[in-house]
Amino acid sequence: MTSKINILIIYTGGTIGMIKDYKTNALKAFDFSRIVEKIPELEQLKCNISSISFEEPIDSSNMNTDYYATLVTIIEENYKNFDGFVVLTGSDTMSYIASAVSFMLENLQKPVIFTGSQLPIGDLRTDAKENLITSIEIAASRKNNKPIVKEVGLYFEYKLYRANRTTKISAEHFEAFAAMNYPPLAESGVHLKFNEHLLLENKNQKAPLIVRKKLVTDVVVLKLYPGITVQVVATILQIKNLKGVVLETYGSGNAPNTSWFLNLLEKAIQQNIKIVNVTQCSGGSVILGHYDTSFGLKEIGVISGLDITTESAVAKLMYLLNEDLSTEAFKTYFQKSLRGEISEK
User: Fold this and answer.
1) Which of 11-20, 100-109, 220-229 has the weakest average pLDDT?
2) H or E element in which residue 322 lies
3) Under DSSP, is residue 92 helix (H, G, I), strand (E, B) or coil?
4) 304-330: per-residue pLDDT in tens?
5) Is 310 known to be catalytic?
6) b/e for 5-22, b at 16 or more Cβ within 10 A?
7) Rounded CA separation 284/286 (Å)
8) Domain boundaries 219-334, CATH class
9) Catalytic residue among 15, 93, 115, 126
10) CA-to-CA distance for 85 and 79, rounded, in angstroms?
11) pLDDT at 1
12) Which uninterrupted H or E stretch holds 258?
């Protein structure tokens, strides 16, 4: 007889964990230790469900890297005792958080599934119930007595995505997330169907989990727009202790080829500030040198982010900047797929 799968729910905050007090109409935090009592359908999954909640639920807009460290510490401390993890956070910054966690957990051999909801769990038309139930089912899914998913995923509205490929696309619809450059890892319909050929497989299955809790936060996102001035770019690049820039360019990585713009970027690169080029488009890839307006960026040493998302680029910058890499090694690792976040050339 197979023993029950042990799943740990980690509630950090967010809409999914709120219920309405119908006497006052105020929202209050849900007690996830009573989750099976409130959602008896979970009994059908035949797994033991435990929960840990942050002492004070964190609104997604208040999330920062200190909370990321708290989250991965909880996973680290409970890694041996549980077969899978479901992390509940606010959806607004979920792609940023989940992307960062994917880099912070190295040699992951168990599912870490992020989910949330657009409506509180106690609302009549809530999406929270389905998102939570299916996320737990995904975290508990096994084949040949091994977890099917061994990476950080994000489940929302019938689709499981690789977390570090996602972007929140809607504040209104239940289908709140998309991964424009990578297909869903699983889809939930009448059956829960995994696209197993798309899943990450850690080749060194006996390697221990490595948890990296320190991220360098001295980074900035510089989004280009027609009419951007020399004063704006210069001020941003002169931020004290700045170490990394995610440069959001047009199309396939294009930017102004004016001398003042390229000179400012080149000066920053010479000061060992890492500049990564990502596209503002929701899908597609940066191809440096494809047009004349990106050739100059390539010449001065701007790093192509290929098809990485802005959210994942921010997380990867924070992660790699702490690794004390040479300029060449940094570029190599940034353009290399570490957790499936990027399509290599």
Assistant:
1) 11-20
2) none
3) helix
4) 999 999 999 999 999 999 998 999 999
5) no
6) bbbbbbbbbbbbbbbeee
7) 7
8) alpha beta
9) 15
10) 9
11) 40
12) none
Entry pTM:
0.94
Rounded CA Rg of the chain? 21
**Which residues are CB-neighbours of 118 under 8 A, at least 6 positions away?**
15, 91, 127, 172, 173, 174, 176
Bridge partners of residue 1, in order along the sequence: none
For CATH 3.40.50.40, the residue range(s) in the chain are 219-334
Q: What are 298's two structure tokens?
A: 């390539």
Task: Measure the CA–CA gap between 24 and 127, rounded to whole angstroms.
Answer: 23
Question: How many angstroms separate the Cα of 19 from the Cα of each of 31, 129, 325?
Answer: 9, 12, 47
Q: Where along the chain do the CATH 3.40.50.1170 domains lie?
A: 5-211
Q: Are strands 210-211 and 105-106 parallel, antiparallel or unpaired?
A: antiparallel
Domain 5-211 listed as CATH 3.40.50.1170: yes
On whether the CB atoms of residues 223 and 255 are closer than 8 A, the answer is no
Residues in Cβ contact with 313 at an 8 Å cutoff, skipping those fewer than 6 apart: 246, 276, 278, 305
Q: Tokens for 41, please give them.
A: 């359908």
CA-to-CA distance for 308 and 298, rounded, in angstroms? 17
Q: Which amino acid is at 273?
A: I
